[in-house]
Amino acid sequence: MTRISFHQDLEQLQQNLLHMGSLVEDAIYNAVDSLRRQDLALAEQVLRADDQIDRLESELETECMRLFALQQPLARDLRIIGTVLKTITDLERMGDEAANIAEITLRVGDQPLIKPLIDIPRMAELVKAMVRKGLDAFVRRDVELAAEVRRSDNAVDAIYAALNDELVEMTMRFQSMREAKQAFLLLMAARHLERIGDHATNLAERVVYMVTGHVVSHQPPSALEAAGQGAAETGDSRE
Amino acid sequence: MDHVHAPPVPAPTFTVRNLTIAYSGNPAIKNVSLDLYPRSVTAFIGPSGCGKSTFLRALNRMNDLIPGVTTQGRILLEGEDIYAPGVDVVNLRKRVGMVFQRPNPFPMSIFDNVAYGPRIHGVTDRDRLSAIVERSLTAAALWDEVKDRLHKSALDLSGGQQQRLCIARLLAVDSEVLLMDEPASALDPISTGKIEDLIDELKNRYTILIVTHNMQQAGRVSDRTAFFLSGELIEYGLTAEVFESPRDRRTEDYITGRFG
């Protein structure tokens, strides 16, 4: 075993990614919770947390570039650092989407909700679980779990599509501008959650690349399954 | 052993089959089979003592010079068995030339170093020799630096220049294959860069086989990489794939420094 300090740096890099990921998970939960409970203080807290997520992204990017420059990583190490570098962008965007939802909470303010929020919190639960599982898959080098994340995105898209129809229809029926506007804002919130699902899918696809070396982004789900199969067949866990 | 997944590949320069080489009975290369391709660079990597230099030296029968060496298996150069009885070894080493870790210019002028090979092979005409020297030094990216002092001693050149002179010597006898055993390990980064640029240039015409301990160098200059360990060929494939996603755990551990 050589390059001990490099591998310690690499371990720390992954810990920092997980830390950033847990902040993003909290942001998603809190943003939707602030909307559901119309808790403006909580929304403000989400906005502040987003600054911290942005800062972490910069720090992690700098660290990735430093390791590329000084250590010239190869093979597994190369894929880990490349994966972190791409994943922080997705996490940062998820943080932005959560902040967008918090902004919606502030815009809705204390006006009565046009409908009880059920689908939006359900979407939030789903996408938060996708992020959680994506990060778990990263830690455990688990291609099967990553594939599960990608499948979950279909459920998120389905809820979004249904909610979209419902809110558009409601918007048409509303007499007041205020209610129509709120329906539109809720639709936007759902859209932000749907985007978080897409970023979580990206995260899962990066994990597949990191573990197997196969790029499965922009490919049908079968490619992801196949990459996982390949890794299983060669008994190549590459932990 | 997995085969290389490359676009249509030309006929191999070397076809090596079941090669086993032993020093006084101790195997240094164990049953290695692989094809080496023309107009490309193949890098040989592996820890010290893994057999990569022994393998390289087998390709122009330099191992014959070491007492107690036994070579089994077949090495075909463009289809011809180089270990067959009656093979002209001098001619083989002309076709398959070697550059060593430490540049080894002859203690004579720059001109005479390059003209040495052609003279041995019977070229005496002064103008023809001059033309060969200029062409070879130009191809070795050394001409501009030495054209005004061709008759000065080669030993006064810098290490990097001496190494390029040694390459020019091979080009002067129309070698087809260039074997390079850590050709830049004794050079500073600028001289190393010049050698690597030269390798990149020469690979359009030659089969280049290079042993290196420098992973980054292997990545920069080679098209294919072969990883040896304890005399066995562990992995052989496109360099980009071997360095990004090696198939064998031992390759992975070696190139990431987790070895042992």
Features:
heterodimer; A: 239 residues; mainly alpha; Methane Monooxygenase Hydroxylase, Chain G, domain 1; 7 helices; 85% helix; B: 260 residues; alpha/beta; Rossmann fold; 6-stranded mixed β-sheet; 4-stranded antiparallel β-sheet; 10 strands; globular
Question: What share of the residues of chain A does DSSP label as strand, in percent?
Answer: under 5%
Quote the beta fraction of chain B. Answer: 25-35%
Major sheet characteristics of chain B: 6 strands, mixed
**Whole-angstrom Rg of chain A:** 20 Å
Total beta strand runs of chain B: 10
Low-confidence stretches of chain B: none
Number of strands of chain A: 0
Give your account of this protein's structure:
The complex is a heterodimer of chains A (239) and B (260). Chain A has 239 residues and is mainly alpha-helical. Chain A has one domain (4-230): Phosphate transport system protein phou homolog 2, domain 2 (Methane Monooxygenase Hydroxylase, Chain G, domain 1, Up-down Bundle), CATH 1.20.58.220. Chain A has helices spanning 4-37, 40-71, 75-108, 119-140, 143-173, 177-212, 221-233. Residues 231-239 of chain A have low confidence and may be disordered. Chain B is α/β, with parallel strands linked by helices and 260 residues long. Chain B has helices at residues 52-58, 89-95, 110-120, 126-139, 143-146, 159-172, 189-202, 215-221, 239-244, 249-255, and strands at residues 14-23, 26-36, 40-45, 69-77, 80-81, 96-99, 177-181, 207-211, 224-229, 232-238. The longest helix of chain B is centred in the middle third of the chain and has 14 residues, at 126-139. In chain B, strand 4 (69-77) and strand 5 (80-81) form a beta hairpin. Chain B has ten helices and ten strands. Chain B has a single domain (14-255), classed as P-loop containing nucleotide triphosphate hydrolases (Rossmann fold, 3-Layer(aba) Sandwich). The model of chain B has no long low-confidence stretch (mean pLDDT 94). In chain B, the strands form two sheets. In chain B, strands 6-7-8-3-9-10 form a six-stranded mixed β-sheet, sandwiched between helices. Chain B has a four-stranded antiparallel β-sheet with strand order 2-1-4-5, covered by helices on one side.
